[in-house]
Amino acid sequence: MICKGTNTSIAEGIIRMGGDDRRSPIFEGEIPIPEGVSYNSYVILDEKTVLLDTCDESVSHGYMSSLEDALSGRDLDYFVISHMEPDHGAAIGDVIRNYPEATVVASGLAFEMLANFLEINPEKRLVVEDGTVLELGKRSLTFISASMVHWPEVMMSYESKDGILFSADAFGTFGALDGAVFADQLDFDGKYMDEARRYYTNIVGKYGAQVRKVLDKSGSVEIKMICPLHGPIWRGGFGEFVGKYVKWSGYEPEEDGVVIGYASMYGNTADAADTLATMLRSKGVKVVVHDLSRRHSSYLVSDAFRFSNIVLAAPTYNNGLHPAMSAAIENMESMTVRARKYSIIGNGSWAPRSHEFMCKRTEALKDMTLVGEPVVFKSSLKDEDREKLAHLADEIAASMGEA
Ligand SMILES: Cc1cc2nc3c(=O)[nH]c(=O)nc-3n(C[C@H](O)[C@H](O)[C@H](O)COP(=O)(O)O)c2cc1C
Ligand SMILES: [Fe+2]
Ligand SMILES: [Fe+2]
Fold it and tell me: For position 129, which CATH number holds?
């Protein structure tokens, strides 16, 4: 929840208003968030006062009184809306109604969306474009268009006095922050990086080219602090995280390794996945295994961005593909997983065809390289099938330069 007690000063005259949602089981009606998610909104107190974005309905309970507290009795001069996605817009209507003198600042497209979402057309409005500067007194905000990262109207803002990038949804992560505000208060690499990857790959993954554009643009200014709308604030030490964004947006794997995603009804396809995983591990290859009937495909997508190799294993189902595998491939396609080495394991009791469907469906992914022949077995693994899996393990290891 966002309440007065969670308001935190993050630089002179800049307050982060934020809170954790530990209750919602899914994000965007689709992606599981077992570790919760956090929301940030920012207030700048200069000669002019500014509010940057609001929050999601799930944490909006105390938002308006927190805003009043953050403004320390002052009126609001500018209300900047980075984009209109409702997870940052739950209090937009209340802010406009409660601070009628505030000028709403957003891109032209965001104003169109504002009218569509809330049927509000604020009288005091300032349409900003890429490069527009808003003077606040000692500080100023320069707007940076981040179109399609991940909505079309997105504007980031850059504060030049302290080199602060208000990065909208970029550099965010899933996961509640448990009172922390800065990344250096957390074991980010150990505890949050996997969720940051799952957040990026499943929300922004498709828009790699647009992310690259913004990374190039922001490379020309000195950034000392990154303030995203989700997750902790970075006050330095973000080189590695930015490096991950460079890789993810270029669809380059972070490291050699294998993600195995399998669907299985009675455990036989799972046996094949685990047998292959054991064989690969014995060769020193890093492996992550996901049961797609149990684990949402966002985890497979995330590890597909992380690793060099993907293995898909599924039984034949009513002369088609098991639904859990079908949904996973659809999600990989939607998030534009590409340029990976991949291998296929199929299973069936009377007319195995799942391998054919997996091969066909993965054709929709770009620049993929099939490693080894698809391994196809009937019902349960026999010695000859294990031999085929051993051969596949050799080929997968060889594909990443391992002996
Ligand atoms: C609802 C259902 C539909 C199936 N459809 C087919 C099929 O069309 N062709 C086939 O060869 N096997 C079919 N099978 C058999 C499974 O593919 C086979 O038993 C496989 O070994 C199951 O793997 P698992 O132990 O990993 O669940 C079907 C099984 C079920 C339960
Ligand atoms: Fe968003
Ligand atoms: Fe968001």
Answer: 3.60.15.10
DSSP label at 335? T
> Do 274 and 238 belong together in one domain?
no
Could you give the C-alpha distances from 367 to 17, 101, 143, 355, 359, in angstroms and in order?
Answer: 43, 53, 35, 19, 14
What is the model's pTM? 0.95
Distance 229 CA to ligand 2 centre (A): 8
Q: Which ligand is nearest to the CA of 318?
A: 1
* 148 shares a domain with 225: yes
Helix (H, G, I), strand (E, B) or coil at 219: coil
Which domain range does residue 149 map to? 4-249
CATH code of residue 336: 3.40.50.360
Nearest-5° angle of CA 163, CA 169, CA 170? 60
Q: What is the largest CA-CA distance in the chain?
A: 77
**What is the distance in A from the centroid of ligand 1 to the CA of 378?**
9
CA pair distance 292, 300, nearest whole angstrom: 8
Task: Give the integer Cα–Cα distance in Å for 259 and 92.
Answer: 41
pLDDT in tens, 87-138: 999 999 999 999 999 999 999 999 999 999 999 999 999 999 999 999 999 9
Pocket of ligand 1 (CB under 6 A): 264-270, 315-319, 347-352, 379
Q: Which residues 6+ apart lie within 8 Å of 243 measured at CB?
A: none
